[in-house]
Each structure stands twice: as structure tokens, then as C-alpha cells.
Amino acid sequence: MKITTVGIDLAKHVFQVHGVDEQGNTVLRKQLKRDQLSVFMATLPPCRVGMEACGGAHHWARKFEGFGHTVRLMSPQFVKPYVKSNKNDAADAEAICEAVSRPNMRFVPIKSVEQQAVLSLHRVRQGFVAARTAQANQIRGLLAEFGLVLPTGLCALRKQLLVLLDGVGDQVPEVFLRLVRRLHEHLVELDRQVGELEVQIRQWHRSCTQSQRLEKIPGVGPLTATALVTSIADARSFKNGRQLAAWLGLVPRQHSSGGKPTLLGISKRGDVYLRTLLIHGARAALSAAKRHAKSNPWLGKLLERRNPNVAAVALANKNARTVWALLAHDREFQVDYTPTLTTV
């Protein structure tokens, strides 16, 4: 029997493989170790291979494509409904094989090695930023226990912390002062790590034409542009800009029934990091629009009738659609662009 579709349940050391023929009959159930998987897939005739988009999925997808297979990655939430009865590796592999055969299934674009490397810079930088925030909060909490309070904001902490410690005199034990100075050194080191990673991201940004194209959108900077280019991978995998905005969770969440539509807050699906960058960038664009109201009439009218938070999400949604248009159609951003409506 010729195997036409294979579902693979990925893991660290033990992989489960499930294969079916053209009629959907099961012809393969196999458990393989990590060093056996590549050999097995290299000897298997070219077929469609389905996997969940999880850790290591893009690496295996590139490897299997090199063997001549057609690889499709899927979000785990779309595979879960196809799991029968109890969950185990064999049932998961069978569910993946079934899900990848569905004609209306949504697939995740396979990322290149370079895209994954740049995304790694973003993830590590975000980790350092979170650690820096936690360290600053810890310093503030410890100081507050001794009645020492600094103005809010990271900049104020950097500028006034050492001055505050030098001026407390004998009010605080020396052992505590040494401790806070050590925490301050750690905060400075985290700042340095964040700055170095941002320099690397900006260097890649200057070498990427697509990223530079996105930077021209108001509310999209080098960090957001590089994160979007590397995360989206292939914009043509989305049918239109609305699908990209929905993928990022920038559309209303629905709870409709009986023909009565009920729209709630944004769905918050997809990548939290990308959505955060777009919304924060939109907030910066809103601040600029308030100073120059005539530069963007649409944004000015939106601010007149909507809350600033709602306006920021609306602008982030619009920017996401613009990003799709620029990447999918290989266009340059135009401030005064007017779409051409075609009549059938």
C-alpha cells in the first residue's frame, strides 16, 4: 500500500508516526527514536506530512522538505478535536494525520533558519526586559520597607537610586546598602543586555527590505517590523488583511447565537508579543496625531468619538491589515493611498 499522508507526533526523544493510504486506511503505526526519524523519512516515498506547530516543528519541516515531502504545520488547537477517546502518542499522531487531510484546515507557514534566529533575538530580549522590570520592582519593594520611595519609572530609578543610597546615612544598615547596590549592578547588566540585542535586531532590520518597508507605517518601528516579518513568514498564507488581524487577536471576540450577533472585547489570539508591539506602537502614533491633528484625519475623527484605548486597538488592527497588503503584494507604503475598486 502506498502511503499518501503521514501524521507525526513530535517529542524530544520518542516520535509516533501514523500513515494512511489514498482511501484513508491505516497502513502505518510506528514509534521511532530521534536518531531513527530522519532515516525513516528519508527512505519514505514523497508524501504529505502533518505536524503540530510546536517546539522543533520548523526544524523538522525544513528537514523533511529536503527529502521531497510536502510538509504542513498546524496549530495544536485545531488538531485537538480530532483526538479520539483517551490521549496518547498514537492517538495524537492519528489525529494529526486526520487533521492535515481536511481541505479547510489552516496551516502555519514554515520559517527559515534566518527568521527563527531573528525571532530568538526578540524572545531573549523580551526575557531580559521582563527580568529588568522584575528587578526594578524588587528594588522598589525593598526600599519601601525602610521608608525609601523613588518616583515611578525606570529612568527615575536609574538616576536617583545611588544618590538616595548615598544620602541615607546611618538610617539603613550597611548590609542592606550593599545588597541594594548589588541589585543595581544587576539592573545595569540587564540594561546592557537589552541594548546589545536591540543593536543586533536593528542591524538585521537595515539589511531586510521588507522590514524597512514596514517601518514607514505610523506606529511601526524597527522592533515591530522585524518581529512581524519573521513571525508572519509568508503573508500570502493569509487570504486577506482581516485574517492576519484575526490571527493576531485584534478583532472582537464573538458569543453569538440565534441570529443575534454579540461582540465582546478583542479575542487576544495569536502571538501576545506581536499584538503588544502593535498596540504600543499605535499608542505612540496616537500621541503624534494629537499634536498634528491634520496629518491623519481618520485618526483624528476616531479619537473624537472613541476612547483612546479603543482607538489604539483600532489603529493596531488597521496597521496589521496594511502590513499584510505591503508584504503580500510587495508594495511600498503610501500615506495618501486610495484603493481602486474593481467592478465585475
| Alpha plus pi helix count | 13
The overall pLDDT, averaged over residues, is: 91
Strand order of the largest sheet: 3-2-1-4-5
Number of strands: 7
Order of helices and strands: EEEHEHEHHHHHHHHEEHHH
What is the quaternary state of this protein? Answer: single chain
Q: Which consecutive residue ranges, at least 5 long each, have pLDDT under 50?
A: none
Alpha-carbon distance between the two ends? 48 Å
Shape: globular
How large a portion of the residues is in β-strands, by DSSP E? 5-15%
Summarize the biggest pleated sheet: 5 strands, mixed
Rg (CA only): 25 Å
Highlighted features:
alpha/beta, 3 domains, 344 residues, single chain, two-stranded antiparallel ribbon, 56% helix
Description:
By secondary structure, this protein is of the alpha/beta class. It has 3 domains: 96 residues, 2-Layer Sandwich (Nucleotidyltransferase, domain 5), CATH 3.30.420; 95 residues; 116 residues, no CATH class. Helices cover 56% and strands 11% of the residues. It is built from 13 helices and 7 strands. The strands form 2 sheets. Strands 3-2-1-4-5 form a 5-stranded mixed sheet. A hairpin with a 4-residue loop joins strand 1 and strand 2. Helix 11 crosses helix 13. The longest helix has 34 residues. The radius of gyration is 25 Å and the shape is globular. The mean pLDDT is 91.
